[in-house]
Amino acid sequence: MSERTWQDKVASWSEEGFSAAEIVSKSRVLRLLKKKYVVKKAYTPSSIVDKQKIGPIFKFVFDSYLEDNQKEGSKAVEEINALFGEKLSPNIVKRIREAQGLGTDGVRYGHSVRMVNRPPRLAFCTHHLSVGTMFTHHVFTDESMVQAGKRGRFCYVLKGDTSSRVKPRYKHPPQLMVWGGISWEGATPLVLIRKGRNVDGPVYQSMLHSSS
To answer: Which residues pair with 176 in a beta bridge?
Structure first.
């Protein structure tokens, strides 16, 4: 059997008759046991003149980025100067942010299904999967609104906080509704709907027929 992990190695040494002391000396365990761990000193920016303000500034940066994780560093600099009278650079704000575990991640634009709608949708899909429904005579449609708004590529969140990456804001201007569908025969052409257009029953039916 191939030795793929250190556990496999320890097990094989034990099977070969090595004692615990011999196994420790043969592996890196002894070096780990003797290693001295040094607690890294907390980051304290030297550019903050009033050292009593370090704690409040750190808390302000942490709270403000939890509230708006796409805040620009220059804006945080202005707010710190206005609230605390300390002139910091965007790089210092970045280091304060990172020292508290707020790393850089990519923004994911989209939306999630509301909790109240998830059980019936899951039940619908599970049922039709179980009975083998092919949906050969159905058209599944959806629409998406695009409009001007705040957007960005990056956000600053705690490690593992994936939900804060999802932004409900739309990415592309101007405001326009894009409608489309897909069926057994393939995708439908896209329909562009202007703002203020009332999509009632007849309009919706005409869209389906013109796209089929």
So the answer is: 146
Do the beta carbons of residue 207 and residue 178 sit within 8 Å? no
Can you tell me the distance from the alpha carbon of 181 to that of 143, in angstroms, rounded to the nearest whole number?
Answer: 9
Among 57, 165, 185, which residue's Cα sits nearest to residue 107? 165
Pull the structure tokens for residue 62.
Answer: 């942490």
How many C-beta neighbours within 10 Å does residue 139 have?
14
Q: Rounded to an integer, what distance in angstroms lies between the CA atom of residue 158 and that of residue 103?
A: 6
What backbone phi and psi angles, to 5 degrees, belong to 77? -60, -45
Task: Classify residue 78 as left (phi > 0), alpha (psi -120 to 50) or beta.
Answer: alpha
165 in Cβ contact with 108 (< 8 Å): yes
Distance CA 160, CA 137 (A): 42
- Cα 15 vs. chain centroid, distance in angstroms? 46
Average pLDDT of the chain is: 81
pLDDT at 162 over 50: yes
Render 105-120 in DSSP notation, one character per residue: EE-EE-----GGGHHH
Q: Are 71 and 64 in contact (CB under 8 A)?
A: yes
pLDDT score of 106: 78
Instruction: With CA atoms as reference, report the closest residue to 146 among 130, 170, 181.
Output: 170
Q: How far apart are CA 108 and CA 85, in angstroms?
A: 35
pTM score: 0.46
Separation of first and last alpha carbons in the chain: 60
